[in-house]
Amino acid sequence: MTSYKIPVIPGDGIGPEVIAEGKKVVEAAGEVYGYDVDWVVMPLGADHYLETGETVSEDTLRELGGYRAIYLGSLGDERKVKTGILEKGVLLKMRFYFDQYINLRPVKLLEGVDTPIKNKTSKDIDFYVVRENTEDFYAGIGGRGVKGLSHQHLKLMRETFSAKFDLDVLTDSDEIAYQIGVISKEGTWRIIDYSYKLAQQRHKHLSSVDKANVMTDIYGFWREIFQDVGKGYPDVKTDFNFVDAVTMWFVKNPEFFDVVVAPNMFGDIITDLGAMIQGGLGLAPGGNINPEGTSMFEPMGGSAPRYKGLNKVNPIATIWAGALMMEYLGEKEAAGGILTAIEKNLVDRKVRTYDLGGSSKTSDVGSDIARIVKEQGRV
């Protein structure tokens, strides 16, 4: 039997509740498909920060780097810790440290789920958004300047490149703020190449998202690389989409899309829209992936601290994220079994949380999906 050692970060708010159900289902699949999991609990989050004054230490990062996959509940509790501290100090830090340059989001309407888009079914909404995860305007470099002349020295360090910016800022405004978006040839090439490969495995259609009509330098560069990479994939059909237009097409014609690739900031925005058209954040998983390193899998939704301890929220996004994690680890059959069990739970319409019109508890849903996984394995 294959054995996996997987770090798990339950996190804040509802994080421990949903991650418990995800673990329950992953373990149930292990009984059926022949693996076991040894969970290594890492107590990162608001309470850890308040107790220690640190977000995540270098020692912890090095320890996590010894594993292929991390399972994350959710982080953040604005009642305890100022918004942004944990998001930047833990989530972004881990993404950059482990060079998780791919954010992979399945946008798939499952059978048994209603979409807010009229007359669309599960046959119409089934695509992936591949978001570049380490560059663009989320690179974390920027600053402020006050009236007169000021100087700013900015440095960007990434796995594939480094860059330094020495800025003289002269302004007659009382104060200005600026953020620098940076994309590299190496970083852009690899995310687009990954997307072409994914499209080849599906329906051979890749859509690029940018705003090259306004931000001509940064996203014109993105388009050039998209076209250059595409020369190696002549069988893949492609199209360019401005980000404002793609939000319309996601709603009007979601069936058009197969694989969508986007720079970091736009990818962040359109994946939230994708979550809504597939039924809500409770049904939206994601993976932060480094194909050659340590990857992290999590639900798209936040920690929702006001629901902490109520055993109320939908755990399906976290359970689905667990399926993505097991697929990444090579357990494709188990991952498929988990997703099939999720869909059967939804089609049955008997065990559902409040967001899907039911009254079941978080733990009820996890137990039902685990039961289905086991019963499928006995057939």
SSE order = EHEHHEHEEEEHEHEHEHEEHHH
The main sheet comes to: 10 strands, mixed
Count every beta strand, where a strand is a DSSP E run of 2 or more residues.
Answer: 12
Mean pLDDT: 96
- By CATH reckoning, the class of the largest domain would read Alpha Beta
Strand content: 25-35%
What is the structural class? alpha/beta
Radius of gyration in whole Å, from Cα? 21 Å
Query: How far apart, in Å, are the first and last alpha carbons?
Result: 21 Å
How would you name the CATH homologous superfamily of the largest domain? Isopropylmalate Dehydrogenase
Helices, by number, come to 11
Total domains, how many? 3
Second-tier CATH architecture of the largest domain: 3-Layer(aba) Sandwich
CATH topology type of the largest domain: Isopropylmalate Dehydrogenase
Strand order of the largest sheet: 2-1-3-12-11-4-5-10-8-9
Shape descriptor reads: globular
Runs with pLDDT <50, length 5+?
none
Portion of residues in helices?
25-40%
Task: Quickly describe the structure.
The protein has 379 residues and is α/β, with parallel strands linked by helices. The chain has helices at 15-33, 46-52, 58-64, 85-97, 185-201, 216-230, 243-252, 264-277, 316-328, 332-348, 362-378, and strands at residues 2-11, 35-41, 69-74, 102-108, 126-132, 142-157, 162-179, 205-210, 237-242, 259-262, 285-289, 295-299.
